[in-house]
């Protein structure tokens, strides 16, 4: 299958390498010429297996209209810049982002394509422009946002393999809400305090903060807080030595996805949520601080 993957970050590199390893024709679309040239020369290497896969890489301006599917793996705040590149495509579009702040924008864009949403339980860290470390194996969940829902079964049959398990979901909101609660709790707490995932259940004070934050997020989403807290605890335990993407973004002084995660929650809530406000404003304060550092240089 001819698959285009947009985004050369950790998830984009991971998806490209896994799918390329199962006889798919992969094109990875990136922004920088340097990354494109590196991938075209060296392929993509995935650790810890130390396997290298040949993948074609092109710039976003050169999206191949013959792609049979486009998997959009950029950060949520980068989507606005990506939408214009998708205008002439006719194949199914799969958006794989954290949070839910982008859904209304996707709906407003009125794509004529079949539009699918996805979440990933895989862990990955980009170590260079062409090297990705697979830190935790999981599955991909996919649900239909618009278009023909039968396309889900087609994609499942074409893509699923032992390295790429896919779960078809009947309701996109339930699917995204499940992942949003996990991201809304683990990501900001680990980022603010610069700790590994497991610390939110090992440290009694961080555990209390995390549990209260979970209750507020679940209240807004109108989902069962105990069920979702148990899921957060399970994920934090299973990935206890991992570093959340937001923790890494803050450590490397990059923009985070906090607006699409807790920013979305605050916009939906009709009352004050102190723990959510604390976590959101703490991340925004950190972002503001390192922006000031850049401006002072």
UniProtKB/TrEMBL annotation:
GO molecular function: 2-dehydropantoate 2-reductase activity; NADP binding
GO biological process: pantothenate biosynthetic process
Listed pathway(s): Cofactor biosynthesis; (R)-pantothenate biosynthesis; (R)-pantoate from 3-methyl-2-oxobutanoate: step 2/2
EC number(s) recorded for this UniProt protein: 1.1.1.169
A Pfam family recorded for this sequence: ApbA
NCBIfam families (alphabetical): apbA_panE (TIGR00745)
Family as reported in the entry's similarity comment: Belongs to the ketopantoate reductase family.
Entry protein name: 2-dehydropantoate 2-reductase
Organism the protein comes from: Aquibacillus halophilus
